[in-house]
Amino acid sequence: MAECIHMKIAIVCYPTFGGSGVVATELGLALVERGHEVHFITYKQPVRLELLSKKIHFHEVVVPDYPLFQFQPYELALSSKLVDMVKLYNIDLLHVHYAIPHAYAGYMAKKMLAEEGIYIPMVTTLHGTDITLVGNHPFYKPAVTFSINQSDVVTSVSQSLKDDTLRLFDIKQEINVVPNFIEATKYQKVFTDCQRDLMASEKERIITHISNLRPVKRIQDVVKVFHKIQQTIPSKLIMVGEGPEKAPAEELCQSLGIEDKVVFVGNSSEIDKILCFSDLFLLPSEKESFGLAALEAMVNGVPVISTNTGGLSEVNEHGVSGFLSNVGDIDDMAKNAIDILSNDATLNSFKLQAKEVAMKFDTQAIVPLYERVYEDALSKIL
Ligand code: GMT
Fold first, then answer.
1. pLDDT tens-place string over residues 126-179
2. What's the sign of the alpha-carbon dihedral 137, 139, 142, 145?
3. Could you identify the atom of ligand 1 that is nearest to the CA of residue 312?
4. CA-atom Rg of the chain in angstroms
5. 288 alpha carbon to ligand 1 midpoint, in Å?
6. How far, in Å, is the centroid of ligand 1 from the Cα of 126?
7. Which atom of ligand 1 is nearest to the CA of 311?
8. Residues lining ligand 1, Cβ inside 6 A
9. How would you label 345-366 residue by residue, b for 16+ Cβ within 10 Å and e otherwise?
10. Over the stretch 80-128, which tens digit does the pLDDT of each residue have?
C-alpha cells in the first residue's frame, strides 16, 4: 500500500446516534490510527468519540440564544468556528458529512478563508436522507445543489445514493462511491459472555431491530414481521433506539397481544453486546442509502432480513448474508426469517456467511479510499 502524507483534517458531522455521525466518528478514529490529526467540529461531542488526545480534538460549536432570532443561525456559527479552527491548527482539509447544512457552512468557511489567502479543499460525503428525504425538498434544493457542486470532491456511501443524487439534483461534480465500513477484524474473536439468558430462554430465537425509529424505518413492519415469525418460531424481539415511531409500535404490540415478547431498550451504547446474542436482524426500511445498522449486525454474525431499497442490496447479499424483499412485503420477510431460523444448521451457515460478507467492508480496505480522496482534493487547490 502506498504511503499517504499525514494531514490535519477537520470533520464536520452530526454528533448524535445515527449512521452519518457514526461513520464520521469511526473514520476520524481510523485516520488518527493511520497517523493523521483529526478535529471534530460540531455542537456536541460525538457519541462514539470517547477518547480525546493530541491527535483527536473536539471543538464545540456554540450558538447562543438571542431573542431576536426565531431560529438560531447554526450554519453561521459553524462556518465561523471552521474559519477559526483552520487558522489556529493549520488544518489542511475539511470533510463534511451530510450535506445539510454542513456543505453550505463549509463552502462559506472556504470563501472567508480565501479572503485571507488561505486555500483549503472541502470533501462532502452524502449519506442518504440529506439527498433522498430532506435535501430534495424545494425549500433546500437550490442550496444543496450549489454546495455539492462547490465541493472539491464529493463522495456517496453507495452506488444507489450516487444514482439518486444524479437523478434528483443537477450535479456537475463527479461523485465517488466510498462505501461505509466497519472494523471487521475487531469482531473475529468469539464472544462467550453474551448473557443471552437475560433476554430469552434457550429455546427462543432473538430478533433485533436498531434504528432511530423514524417513519422511514417502517417500524410497524418490524412488529408485523415479528408477529408472524413468533407464530412459528418461539422468539423475542429487541427494539433498540428512540424515535417518534416508538409509541405507535408499542401500541401495535399491545393490540397484537405480543407485548410480553417485545423489549424496547431505548438508545444503547452497547450495540455489540445486543448483537452478540441476536439471531436475526430486521431492517424493513422504506429508504436506506446503505444500512450501516445491517452491516453492524452482519459483522457480529447476525443475518439480515431487509428490504431491497436503496443501497441495501449492496450490503446484504440475498441468500448469503440474509434475504431482501420488496418494501412492505411482510409475508415474504417473515417467510425468509422463518427459513433461516427454523434449524440450527441453516442459522449457523447464515451467521458465518453474514460475517464473511461484512469483511468486504473492513476499515482497512475502505479508509485508504478516503485518503486517496483527500489527496485528490488537496491536489485541486495546490
Ligand atoms: O437513517 C438513519 O439511520 C440516519 C441517517 C443519518 O444520516 O445518520 O442514515 C443515513 O446514513 C447512514 C450512514 O451513511 C446510512 O447507513 C443510512 O442508510 C442512511 N439512512 C437513510 O438513507 C434513510
1. 999 888 878 778 889 999 999 999 999 999 999 999 999 999 999 999 999 999
2. negative
3. 18
4. 21
5. 6
6. 10
7. 18
8. 18-21, 23, 98, 127-129, 157, 180, 211-212, 216, 287-292
9. eebeebbebbbebbbbbbbeeb
10. 999 999 999 999 999 999 988 999 999 999 999 999 999 999 999 999 9
Q: How far is the CA of 313 from the CAs of 318, 320, 369, in angstroms?
A: 7, 11, 21
How far is ligand 1, taken at its centre, from the CA of residue 115, in Å? Answer: 35
Strand, coil or helix: 64: coil
Contacts of residue 7, Cβ cutoff 8 Å, sequence gap at least 6: 36, 37, 92, 93, 374, 378
| 310, three cell numbers | 436503496
Stated pTM of the model: 0.93
Tell me whether residue 372 is exposed, middle or buried, using C-beta atoms within 10 angstroms of its C-beta: 0 to 12, 13 to 18, 19 or more: middle
Ligand 1 center to 325 CA (angstroms): 19
Concatenated DSSP letters for 325-358?
E-TT-HHHHHHHHHHHHSSHHHHHHHHHHHHHHH
Distance 135 CA to ligand 1 centre (A): 13
